[in-house]
Design goal:
Length: about 140
Amino acid sequence: MKLDLEKLYIVFKTTPYSSEKDIFSGSPITLKQFATKLKRGLDPNMVAGIFPSKRSAQLVANKYRKKVKSSSVKQRVKAKKIIKGYAIFTSEVMARDKYKINTPPTEIFATKKGALAEIKRWEKRYKKKSDFKIFTYDKSKR
């Protein structure tokens, strides 16, 4: 197969904000155009590959598109409102007073494991031991 440097296909790596067109547009590019993109600030680490044929580029791009679709599904699941679950409170809050406090919890977790993971992330971020409590919580009782 003869390599035509006037028709190269570039596949880009995904970012959390990538669309399918950002990964692979399907249009060819020349070496000169690619060099211009690099001069204008294209990060070489964001290039997944440069391919001589559209078919080979399409195969790699499909793998990256699957990653984008799965990450967008995860974002939609996170956005879902949880009404009943587990909430994190400070040590001053007693279990009987969890619905009487002035400011309700901002986030309710579906599982106790998720709430524990959030406390661990907080401890790791601020590098100190926390004295938080986890209680079951129902927004409709507030």
